[in-house]
Specification:
- The chain is built from no helices and five strands.
- By secondary structure, the chain is mainly β.
- It has a domain at 5-49.
- The chain has a five-stranded antiparallel beta sheet, with no helix packed on it.
- It starts with a strand and ends in a 24-residue tail after the last strand.
- The mean pLDDT is 77.
Length: 79
């Protein structure tokens, strides 16, 4: 069965285990971190043929900072 979405394990045996979910038709993808409550680490969209980031990927090894952009900040119970 051919599917439009591909799921890949990235760094499965490392501290940075991530899962990439990619749209094979458009090359758009997201990356989540399962060990961090399925935290969204990156999102890329196809913009006029170019894959552009919607938010920047985490660079810190502890997955807590991201150039002060507050990606995936906890919004519960309120922002």
């Amino acid at each position: 069965m051919d599917t439009q979405f591909k799921i890949e394990n990235i760094g499965k045996d490392t501290e940075f285990h991530q899962i990439r979910i990619k749209n094979s038709a458009t090359n758009e993808y997201i990356i989540i971190v399962p060990e961090q409550s399925a935290q969204l680490d990156a999102a890329y969209i196809n913009l006029n043929g170019n894959i552009e980031p919607v938010l920047s990927e985490m660079k810190s090894p502890n997955l807590k900072t991201n150039d002060e952009l507050f990606n995936n900040a906890i919004l519960f119970p309120f922002a």
